[in-house]
Amino acid sequence: MDDVSYIDSINNKINSYKDEMISSLSELVGMPAISPEIGGKGELERAGWITEFLKGIGVTEIKRYDYTDTTGATRPNIVSKVGTNKRTIWILCHMDTVAAGDLSLWKQDPFKAYVEDGKIYGRGTNDNGQSLIATLYAAKAIIELKVNLQYNFGMVFVADEEIGSHYGAERLAKEGIFGSDDMMLVPDWGVPTGDKIEIAEKSILWIKVTASGKQVHASTPEDGVNAYKLAVKFLNDLDDQLHSKYNVKDERFDYPVSSFEMTKHDKNVDSINIIPGKDVSYIDCRVLPNYKLDEVIADMKALAEKHSKKGKINIEVFNREDAAKPTDANSEIVQLLSKRINQIRKISVSTVGIGGGTVAKYFRDNGVPVAVWSTEDDVAHQPNEYSVIDALVSDSKVFASLVL
Ligand SMILES: [Zn+2]
Q1: How many domains, the chain?
Q2: Which of 1, 109, 289, 305 has the most CB within a 10 Å radius?
Q3: Are residues 229 and 258 in the same domain?
Q4: Which family is annotated (predicted)?
């Protein structure tokens, strides 16, 4: 069969799974997989369920990579494969979910899925349950149709994505499983129309700025050092300096320049008549991948030094995630994925860079080309999170067609 007739049979096959896919995703919602580091039960129950599913559809190559977290809990990761080719296209999903948050904002129990208006509601339905179920049913279709595989259909189910990937993708990427000959799809970001493939991410840098002076009564400013005033002058200068120096435009990104935004400000004094001796604020930076975060931090520290005369400005890195080298828009995985989306959906797709970070970076860092794509509404981590059933079914078809 050529790939066009295979695509027809994949379409029909996966359409026939629709009801099963809905009940599988609903079952998954009933197995909360919140990190034990924030009091959850972790991913073990889901890992067991996925393993049984894979065995049930006849997958034989199923490997576990378990890591122990700071609470002593086992954090499971599953690496599984269909086919015996040299090269593999891996689809990587995460099993963990965030907590439900404020229960009063949910219309129903977040861990009891329900269907309404073509959507499945529940915590983790969108992030990352939809893609996880779409991947499993794509494997089922490939096996039942006895597809002539050009590449192996690889499946990776990781733990700990929501808290930092220390017991998931970050460790797994270093196990020597994924070669630079392989390709990867991370279906954990997307737009509702499904016509954008993410190939680049910015570095993320969170900075804590502490200004220290001397607290006095507001009527005698000459006796003290106003830490708030110190901070304002510094932050103003810093804002000018960063924006004029780091001004490169990269049109791959929707927001094409680096961003440096003052965000949170800690409470300083209780009273209007007190000059604060300490002032703490924060900056969120999203830096284009052509810049090095070390340079940005060094610039901040040098300017802080300049402003530290009467008082002192201290710069601390609260969190940093250095961006990986972007995946080439002309790479095989991006081209192949675009072609299949076009064949199945009759839409044309474009590539894009985002200001957030996904687990793609751990693999891009190791030279694996990674496309980030799925079809989803922006409802991850929100109350009444849902997955659109049409997207669930249609994404599964695209996944299955990649290995033709
Ligand atoms: Zn996610």
Answers
A1: 2
A2: 289
A3: yes
A4: Belongs to the peptidase M20A family.
